[in-house]
TrEMBL record:
<feature type="domain" description="RNA polymerase sigma factor 70 region 4 type 2">
    <location>
        <begin position="138"/>
        <end position="188"/>
    </location>
</feature>
<comment type="similarity">
    <text>Belongs to the sigma-70 factor family. ECF subfamily.</text>
</comment>
<dbReference type="Pfam" id="PF08281">
    <property type="entry name" value="Sigma70_r4_2"/>
</dbReference>
<dbReference type="InterPro" id="IPR013249">
    <property type="entry name" value="RNA_pol_sigma70_r4_t2"/>
</dbReference>
<keyword id="KW-0804">Transcription</keyword>
<protein>
    <submittedName>
        <fullName>Sigma-70 family RNA polymerase sigma factor</fullName>
    </submittedName>
</protein>
<dbReference type="InterPro" id="IPR007627">
    <property type="entry name" value="RNA_pol_sigma70_r2"/>
</dbReference>
<dbReference type="InterPro" id="IPR036388">
    <property type="entry name" value="WH-like_DNA-bd_sf"/>
</dbReference>
<dbReference type="Pfam" id="PF04542">
    <property type="entry name" value="Sigma70_r2"/>
</dbReference>
<keyword id="KW-0805">Transcription regulation</keyword>
<dbReference type="InterPro" id="IPR039425">
    <property type="entry name" value="RNA_pol_sigma-70-like"/>
</dbReference>
<keyword id="KW-0731">Sigma factor</keyword>
<feature type="domain" description="RNA polymerase sigma-70 region 2">
    <location>
        <begin position="40"/>
        <end position="108"/>
    </location>
</feature>
<dbReference type="InterPro" id="IPR013325">
    <property type="entry name" value="RNA_pol_sigma_r2"/>
</dbReference>
<dbReference type="InterPro" id="IPR013324">
    <property type="entry name" value="RNA_pol_sigma_r3/r4-like"/>
</dbReference>
<dbReference type="InterPro" id="IPR014284">
    <property type="entry name" value="RNA_pol_sigma-70_dom"/>
</dbReference>
Length: 198
C-alpha cells in the first residue's frame, strides 16, 4: 500500500512550496481535520516507512505496522505540536523513536521464530523470479538488514540519517564510545558480507 502511495506522488509535477501549505495542513490536522492529516500522510509516508524499514532490518510487515503506529502516534500528538521545528523533522524523529522502541522491546524478549537476521542474509545475491541476480542496491539493503540490531541502528542513524554519536548514544542508552564502536563494527561486517557475496 505504501509503495503505491509513494509511486503516485513521485509522478506528480514539482510545485514550489514555501512551507505555508504544509503549515496550514498541520494546523488543520491538529484541529482534527482528517483530510489534512491524510494529505500529510501521503506526503511523508514513503520517507517514514523507509527509515523504519532500515532500522528494523527490512522486515516488511513489521516495518508497515510500525509506520502505521508512527502515524497513529503523530495523529494523537499533533494537537500539542508547537511549530518549533519543521513538521517533517518532528514526524521523522517520532518515526525513528517508534522503531527504536520496538527494537528495545524485542531485545528484552526471545527472538520470534522467522525473525532471524541470518535468513535475510541468505537471500543476498539470489536469483529473482526472472532468473536475474538481484541488483547491488538490493544486496546492500539486505546486507544492512542482516547486521545485528544495535550495529544496524547505529549505522542507519549515523550514516543514513546524519545523527551525531551523542544523539545516538542518548537514544539507544549507550556510551558515545559504544556508539562509535558499533558503527565501526557495522561497517566492517557490511564490508565483509558484501565482499563475500561479490
Amino acid at each position: 500500500m505504501l509503495t503505491v502511495v509513494t509511486e503516485s506522488l513521485t509522478d506528480a509535477p514539482a510545485v514550489p512550496d514555501d512551507g505555508s501549505e504544509e503549515r496550514n495542513l498541520v494546523a488543520a490536522a491538529a484541529r482534527g481535520e482528517m483530510r489534512a492529516f491524510e494529505a500529510l500522510y501521503r506526503k511523508h509516508a514513503g520517507r517514514v516507512h523507509g527509515v523504519i524499514a532500515r532500522l528494523v532490518g527490512a522486515h516488511g510487515a513489521r516495518a508497515e505496522d510500525l509506520t502505521q503506529e508512527a502515524f497513529v502516534r503523530a495523529w494523537q500528538a499533533l494537537p500539542a505540536f508547537r511549530f518549533e521545528s519543521a513538521f517533517s523533522t518532528w514526524l521523522h524523529r517520532l518515526a525513528v523513536n517508534t522503531a527504536l522502541m520496538d527494537l528495545r522491546s524485542r531485545r528484552s524478549r526471545p527472538q520470534d521464530e522467522g525473525d532471524s537476521d541470518e535468513e535475510v542474509f541468505d537471500l543476498i545475491g539470489s536469483a529473482d523470479s526472472a532468473g536475474h541476480t538481484t541488483a547491488l542496491s538490493m544486496d546492500l539493503e539486505r546486507a544492512v538488514a542482516s547486521l545485528p540490531p544495535r550495529a544496524r541502528a547505529v549505522l542507519v542513524l549515523y550514516d543514513v540519517e546524519g545523527w551525531k554519536h551523542e544523539e545516538i548514544a542518548a537514544e539507544l542508552g549507550m556510551a558515545v564510545g559504544s556508539s562509535k564502536a558499533q558503527l565501526h563494527r557495522a561497517r566492517n561486517l557490511l564490508r565483509d558480507r558484501l565482499e563475500a557475496h561479490a
